[in-house]
């Protein structure tokens, strides 16, 4: 007998920029930029000070959020990848459907 699939509820589309979303998420966790910088790995190695500057650029929407950056931020501060994927698609000129990307009835994840 198969176990029931886990359900992930649909999410609301935020009306904020990607950088603001990152800042709000970081602050909600009670983390400083320095805290987040210490959680990030980079190749080649980059100083914590440079990572803090980079986070400042992201949070002010002066630096793009690539797929690699989205994954690193997700690992550090649990950024919702569906939201970041939507914003990245828009930034690259795609016209994703909000229904397809964010408002699918539910996502079934095998248990």
Structure in words:
The protein has 111 residues and is mainly α. The protein has helices at 18-28, 33-39, 48-59, 67-77, 81-91, 98-101; strands at 6-8, 107-109. The relative contact order is 0.22. Strands 1-2 form a two-stranded antiparallel sheet. 50% of the residues lie in helices and 5% in strands. The longest helix is centred in the middle third of the chain and has 12 residues, at 48-59. α2 packs across α3 and α4 (67-77) runs antiparallel to α5 (81-91).
Characteristics of this structure?
111 residues, mainly alpha, 50% helix, globular
Provide a short characterization of the protein structure.
The protein has helices at 18-28, 33-39, 48-59, 67-77, 81-91, 98-101; strands at residues 6-8, 107-109. It has a two-stranded antiparallel sheet. The protein is built from 6 helices and 2 strands.
Helix fraction by DSSP (H/I, runs of at least 4):
40-55%
SSE order: EHHHHHHE
Average pLDDT over all residues = 77
What is the percentage of strand-forming residues?
A: 5-15%
Write down the Rg.
Answer: 16 Å
Distance between the termini: 12 Å
Give the neighbour order of strands across the main sheet: 1-2
């Amino acid at each position: 007998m198969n176990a029931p699939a886990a359900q992930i509820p649909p999410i609301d589309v935020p009306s904020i920029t990607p950088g603001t979303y990152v800042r709000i998420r970081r602050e909600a966790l009670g983390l400083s930029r320095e805290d987040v910088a210490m959680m990030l790995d980079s190749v080649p190695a980059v100083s914590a000070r440079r990572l803090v500057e980079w986070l400042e650029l992201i949070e002010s929407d002066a630096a793009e959020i690539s797929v690699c950056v989205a994954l690193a931020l997700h690992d550090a501060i649990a950024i919702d990848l569906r939201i970041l994927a939507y914003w990245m698609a828009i930034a690259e000129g795609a016209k994703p459907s909000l229904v397809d990307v964010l408002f699918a009835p539910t996502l079934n994840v095998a248990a």
